[in-house]
């Protein structure tokens, strides 16, 4: 069976002056795959997601989403993608309901469809609908605001979803709901790129793990494959080896001992 290719990245680089944030990435993601994108701070994960979303132009290389070049037609890419940024940015002067209504109108969703879908997702994440109607987003807790951002990214039933640290601020119940939601979406054909520093969750939910370091792909495969390649027992240990952070635990322990003496 031939699986359609949804994301195609070739020779991708992104430079900010002398800083090379992305240094030549090649990556193919087929339909319905849930890919964990890992890497230390500054590895190029968020920059790569923004380029795939059509928010940043690449310096060199090409990115296609469902056959559409993100530079030539970024609006078409945005229409088919959902995006949860690491910042969880929203229009803070709007209420939660006003914000979701705005997103639905931008995607030109029928009112009844958008209302029903928002209601289902709010119920899943145990959101207080009265708060969504009467309080501005500026007054929400970090977790509640993050739930609204996730819901807004899913309202238009995107073919591709890009998550950048989506669990920031979420409680245990919301985290469980999120994990079940994304694995089910992938099983039903949605393509997902999932950036996270929570390696245990990535190991449990992602069928494929791509590790970035210094803007380059240094490993690509399932968690068991990465463990076999590195000879490590956990994804955390494999990640440490792949990103050249060996000895970090020993250094941290030595510093802690010095601070307590």
Order of the strands making up the biggest sheet: 6-7-8-3-9-10
| Text of the CATH class | Alpha Beta
What count of helical segments does DSSP give? Answer: 11
Q: How much beta, percentage-wise?
A: 15-25%
**H and E string:** EEEHEEHEHHHHEHEHEEHHH
Largest sheet features: 6 strands, mixed
Kindly describe this structure.
By secondary structure, the protein is α/β, with parallel strands linked by helices. The chain has a single domain (5-259), classed as 3-Layer(aba) Sandwich (Rossmann fold). 42% of the residues lie in helices and 24% in strands. The strands form 2 sheets. It has a 6-stranded mixed beta sheet, with helices on both faces. A 4-stranded antiparallel beta sheet has the order 2-1-4-5, covered by helices on one side. α7 links the parallel β7 and β8 (191-195). α3 crosses α4 (111-124) and α3 (96-106) packs parallel to α6 (142-154). The protein is globular, with a radius of gyration of 19 Å. The N and C termini lie far apart (63 Å).
């Amino acid at each position: 069976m031939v699986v359609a290719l949804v994301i195609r990245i070739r020779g991708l680089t992104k430079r900010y002056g002398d800083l090379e944030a992305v240094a030549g990435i090649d990556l193919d993601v087929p339909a319905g795959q849930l890919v964990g994108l890992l890497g230390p701070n500054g590895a190029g994960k968020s920059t790569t997601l923004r380029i795939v979303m059509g928010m940043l132009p690449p310096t060199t290389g090409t990115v296609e989403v469902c056959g559409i070049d993100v530079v030539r037609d970024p609006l078409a890419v945005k229409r088919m993608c959902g995006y949860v940024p690491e910042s969880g940015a929203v229009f803070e002067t709007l209420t939660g309901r006003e914000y979701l209504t705005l997103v639905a109108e931008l995607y030109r969703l029928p009112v009844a469809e958008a209302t029903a879908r928002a209601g289902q997702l709010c119920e899943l994440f145990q959101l207080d609908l009265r708060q969504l109607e009467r309080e501005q987003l500026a007054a929400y807790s970090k977790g509640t605001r993050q739930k609204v951002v996730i819901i807004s990214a899913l309202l238009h039933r995107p073919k591709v979803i890009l998550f950048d640290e989506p669990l920031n601020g979420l409680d245990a119940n919301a985290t469980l709901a999120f994990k079940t939601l994304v694995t089910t979406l992938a099983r039903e054909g949605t393509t997902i790129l999932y950036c996270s520093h929570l390696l245990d969750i990535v190991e449990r939910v992602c069928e494929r793990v791509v590790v970035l370091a210094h803007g380059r792909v240094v490993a690509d495969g399932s968690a068991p494959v990465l463990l076999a390649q590195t000879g490590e027992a956990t994804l955390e240990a494999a990640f440490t080896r792949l990103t050249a952070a060996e000895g970090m635990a020993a250094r941290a322990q030595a510093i802690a001992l010095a601070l307590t003496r």
